[in-house]
Amino acid sequence: MKKIKIHPFIYFFITLLYLELIIKMVMTKNIIDSNLIYLVIFMIPFVFLLTIISKLFGNTINKIISLLLVFIITVYFEIQYIFFNLFSVPFSFSTISLANQALDFVTIIKEAIISHLYGFILILLPFILGVIFNKLLDTRKYHKESIIALFVMLIISYLSTYLLLVPINDNAKYTKELYFNIDDQIALIDKFGLITYTKVDIKRQLFGFETKLVVEENNISTPSIPEGEIDYGFNELDIDFSKLSSNNKTINSLNNYMSKQQASNKTKYTGMFKGKNLIFILAEGFNEIAVDKDRTPTLYKMINEGFKFNNFYSPVFLSTTGGEFQATTGLIPTQEILGTWKREQPYIAYGIGNIFSKYNYQVQSYHDWTYTYYKRNKTMETLGFNNYTGCGNGLEKKMNCEWLPFDSEMVNVTYEDYMKGDKPFATYYVTVSGHSPYEAGDNVAMVYKEEVADLPYDYQVKYYLAAQMELDKMLETLVNKLEETGHLKDTVIALVGDHYPYTLSIEQMNQVATYEKDDIIEVNKSNFLLWNSEMKEPIQVDKVGSQIDVLPTLLNLFGLDYDSRLILGKDILSNSEGIAIFSNRSWMTEYGSYNTATKKYIPKKELEGMTEKEYIRKINNKVANYFSVSKMIIDTNYYTYVLGSE
Predict the structure, then answer these.
(1) Is the CB of residue 190 less than 8 Å from the CB of residue 79?
(2) Contact residues for 243 (Cβ-Cβ < 8 A; gap 6+)
(3) Confidence label for 218 from pLDDT (cuts 50, 70 and 90)
């Protein structure tokens, strides 16, 4: 009886389709839909290419090559799977420029594999089966004529993909724009699959691409001042965008966009903190589940006695660097944008160091870990901190910088730098004590382990809560030092988390949460701490806000002149429409939330003047423009163009 032989084309096709469907399910929550046609057609040229490579040599070598190709593809899909489960975004090759300390994540990656072991094994399955049944693979060498025939089929199948990009209707037009101009990773994978996304991603890294606004008309509506309320004016400068012109069409497109935006209004809180000092903290892994009256009394006090933002979100965008970018620039980060920020070092006009310096503040920044991590030694300069100090450029001489340092010690060894002077100060701290992994051996968590030992949670959750107690100790230390030096009354403390503790599963977070969180939107719900000891009673703020709103909110409260049209985030205390935007372009507003993966809209209140479908389209367009405008601002160094540089 003749043995069954499997042609490499069949093996590669089934393997890739299987892997694509797994990734599609994980990242987009979809498997069988109309986009599957695009995925298969765009995948076929790659299958032909693999088949050609596996037929060039002798039988044994071809068999090894076939399995090696599947192994490489499997490893890549595993990387994407783990990366997405950690950061909620697909891996982009632009991220390579950010990974200067990638080995530090080895333990985190190990934990991520263990916690997602089922999916990890499923992705390995085609390779394992290929190894077991390798004798069934028909890997005989093809003659020249057969290779040429396969190559012709590759060319034909590749050219046929472009037929699907012909803009014959609105859907086809969007598909073409998505392929060539729109930087939407999840939508690309949903429409074309991971292999095609990777091809597009590599092409964009090598040759760049021109991003376009989804709509040119203004879809960012700002309510007018309600009748009976005082009109305090608007946060805008005397800039007539309609009269600005440039030889750069991207800048002209930005000018057109900005000219149609409504500035955010000033309020009774404008200038509330004028002339006061600022200490701004980006807290590693901080989330609302860490706040407890007994375990973190200082955190609890500040959050509940200052401005109390009841609907604030800290969306995870590629770990700490994404959270930092949002909070310090008011823009949306992507891996592409973050890479350009670190590589090109564009001027961030409203970075805290830049703008507070203009008002004669002493500015400084600190981080109690490697000072070059995420190329922070370069990005701090874009924010106006030319005297940034971290472990490796001075801080290690004052404190123990071995993993993990104590945030409270960072305060103890740096406070005299700025509290002993006569000038008002604006200080930026980036913490590290709350960093994962959360396990035994973490020297920070071990200090507080007895205080969490009896909690009814998984051990990782206990160690997370213990690590966040060090953040509370840092705040307590700050308050004590401010009081000792006579600065407490005149200092505002602001704190925001960089991201939720993404190495904890959603089930583990829900062990502590006061309500059931989902893994896309509510998992990012957090606190924005904004406190001054002179506040007599808490100020409740129910409007939806997120990290991109932190910077403009601070600028308005400190009474600093800025143009709110140039920052995508808006002062949370203004009448501007509140919105939180997440890495997969899902969103939350006062009217409801929309999950782009499930295409499900959950209403919170009745819409006025439009249907649910119209509203979803409006906000989707707004979100798309936010992503595009953020990239355009960073790519063109737009602030230097429109405001000049100092």
Answers:
(1) no
(2) none
(3) very low
594, 587 in Cβ contact below 8 A? yes
* Predicted local confidence at residue 33, as pLDDT: 82
SS3 404: coil
pLDDT at 330: 97
CB of 194 closer than 8 Å to CB of 21: no
426 vs 353: CA distance, rounded Å: 7
As to burial, measured by CB atoms within 10 angstroms (0-12 exposed, 13-18 middle, 19+ buried), residue 7 is: middle
Domain boundaries, the chain: 8-207, 268-581
Dihedral in degrees, nearest 10, Cα atoms 120, 123, 128, 133: 160
pLDDT above 50 for 219:
no
pLDDT in tens, 267-298: 999 999 999 999 999 999 999 999 999 999 99
Task: Say which amino acid occupies 331.
Answer: L
Contact 366, 124 (CB under 8 A): no
pLDDT at residue 579 greater than cutoff 60: yes
DSSP output for 211-273: ---S-SS-----PPPPTTS----BS--S--GGG---S-HHHHHHHHHHHTPPPPBP-TTTTTT
pLDDT in tens, 172-188: 888 888 899 888 899 99
Contact present, 464 and 442 (Cβ < 8 Å): no
Q: pTM for this one? A: 0.91
Please give the Cα distance from 475 to 433 (Å, whole number). 13
| pLDDT tens-digit readout, 22-54 | 999 999 888 888 889 999 999 999 999 999 999
Q: Between 219 and 79, whose confidence is greater?
A: 79
The full length of the chain comes to 646
Which are the contacts of 620, defined by CB distance < 8 A and separation ≥ 6? 585, 594, 596
Nearest C-alpha neighbor of 55 from the set 15, 4, 9: 9
Record: fold of 268-581: Alkaline Phosphatase, subunit A (3.40.720)
pLDDT, mean of residues 195-202: 95
Torsion of CA 573, 578, 582, 586, to 10 degrees: 170
| Alpha-carbon distances of 568 from 185, 199, 217, 221, 615, rounded to whole Å | 21, 30, 16, 13, 19
Which residues touch 570 (CB under 8 Å, ≥6 apart)? 264, 549, 552, 564, 576, 577, 578
Check: CB of residue 521 under 8 Å from CB of residue 308.
Answer: no
- What are the beta bridge partners of residue 427? 279, 364
How far is Cα 311 from Cα 307, in angstroms, rounded to an integer?
Answer: 12
Query: What letter would DSSP give residue 169?
Result: S
**Residue 539 host element (H or E):** strand 539-541
